[in-house]
BAR domain-containing protein
Amino acid sequence: MSWNPFSRHALSKKSVVSKTAEKELEREVKRLEELDEASRKLYKDMKRCVEANNALSKVEHKIVQDLSISGLNQQEDEFRFHIEEWSHALDSLERYRMEMNSNAQRTVVEPMKKFCSIFPNLQSAIKKREQSLQEYNRCQVKVNKYQDRERTGQNVVKLDMSRKALEVARDEFLMHDTALKQDLPKLYEGRIDYFESCLEALIKSQVSYNSETFKIYSNVFSQLSNNTNWTLEECKEHNKKLLTEIKGLSLTVDN
């Protein structure tokens, strides 16, 4: 269903709504159309974010599992200890990760899904307004037609009936038109409060998760570093040096 139906009809000279008012409502509908699109993107992106968190957890556990069954893990006690500590860290983080994903689902995904469900109703309301305006224009054409005819008894009766139908159509249109003019701006302005509360809850959850992640991995790192207190750059240089030495072995040199 098209969001914006305004271009499909032309207003008559005696239309129940002015061109200025029609343009103003058209702008409101355009803003709601953009809000609908942005809301759906946020909903889909947040779902992908939750899925990505789950995928990351699975990959980390798979890496630890592969290292645990490797020959190096069976032969080196210190290496096995480090892998076990990493595994314990992942198990500890799993609870916080599940909590963060649950919060993301409750505070963003589900609220955004409910918010997006509003827009089909708005589209329906806009369509009803459009239909009632078209009906008013048709009734106005009939009134004009019988006004221009000879005032015979039959034509007078038809003119009277047409005027009554026009009045009914006018009231029907004004009901839909007034409701939209009142509700569309309220909905658009209320989006900020709705989104902010959702995002605030999500950020709080992420702060909690990442704080725990930092604590747990800092503890694992302190055990892996063997009290060397190396910086990240120093670790890189150390590994680079070791790799150079390995490449220098006669077994690794290309003949």
